[in-house]
């Protein structure tokens, strides 16, 4: 949904730029600029383009309301689950990242140590050791696809002991 919202903003921004109307980057700048351009009858926007931009803006408003509703639902889920509550105490991990991590990894008990979970996320080299000889493989993008996709913030703030310890408490 966020990708769709960004796409709608970029589409409306491109239409305005074709008519020589400057648009700032970012959502806040977009909203003020688009409303200012639609309200200015003296610019070069045609009637059909004004109708199209107004329709895009309505679609965008509806999408933003839905994103806000889902964000509230995710926060409610985050504050009702004990594992997620513990993950929320780690700096840099918010409700979305914590719920995504728990959805992907469960309670984390399948990981014997933090290194195993980090390898599952694709953060550290995989390890194939035997007979006292340590054999580390390279870091790859072979980690859990859902975990890699949805837990960027978790991975960015990951500290080996803190995430697994928070899940196991």
Please, could you describe this protein's structure?
The protein has 169 residues and is an all-alpha fold. Helix content is 64%, strand content 0%. The protein has helices spanning 2-18, 27-39, 47-78, 82-88, 95-105, 114-121, 145-150, 152-156, 160-168. The longest helix is centred in the middle third of the chain and has 32 residues, at 47-78. It is elongated, with a radius of gyration of 23 Å.
What is the alpha-carbon Rg in Å? Answer: 23 Å
- Compute the separation of the termini in Å: 34 Å
Structural class: mainly alpha
Shape: elongated
Question: What's the tally of helices?
Answer: 9
Mean pLDDT comes to 80
Helix content: 55-70%
Write out key terms for the chains shown:
about 170 residues; mainly alpha; about 65% helix; about 0% strand
Give me a quick take on this structure.
With 169 residues, this protein is an all-alpha fold. The chain contains nine helices and no strands. Helix 4 crosses helix 5 and helix 6 (114-121) crosses helix 9 (160-168).
Write the layout of secondary structure elements.
Elements: H1 2-18, H2 27-39, H3 47-78, H4 82-88, H5 95-105, H6 114-121, H7 145-150, H8 152-156, H9 160-168
Helix pairs in contact: 1-2, 1-3, 3-5, 4-5, 4-9, 6-9
């Amino acid at each position: 949904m966020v990708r769709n919202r960004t796409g709608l903003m970029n589409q409306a921004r491109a239409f305005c730029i074709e008519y020589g109307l400057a648009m700032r980057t970012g959502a806040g700048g977009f909203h003020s600029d688009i409303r200012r351009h639609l309200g200015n009858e003296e610019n070069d926007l045609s009637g059909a383009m004004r109708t199209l931009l107004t329709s895009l803006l309505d679609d965008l408003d509806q999408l933003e309301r839905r994103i806000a509703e889902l964000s509230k639902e995710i926060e409610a889920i985050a504050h009702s689950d004990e594992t997620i509550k513990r993950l929320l105490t780690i700096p840099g991990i918010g409700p979305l990242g914590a719920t995504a991590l728990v959805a992907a990894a469960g309670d984390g008990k399948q990981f014997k140590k933090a290194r195993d979970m980090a390898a599952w996320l694709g953060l550290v080299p995989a390890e194939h050791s035997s007979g006292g000889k340590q054999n580390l493989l390279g870091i790859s993008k072979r980690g859990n696809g859902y975990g890699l996709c949805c837990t960027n913030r978790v991975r960015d703030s990951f500290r080996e002991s803190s995430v697994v310890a928070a899940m196991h408490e």
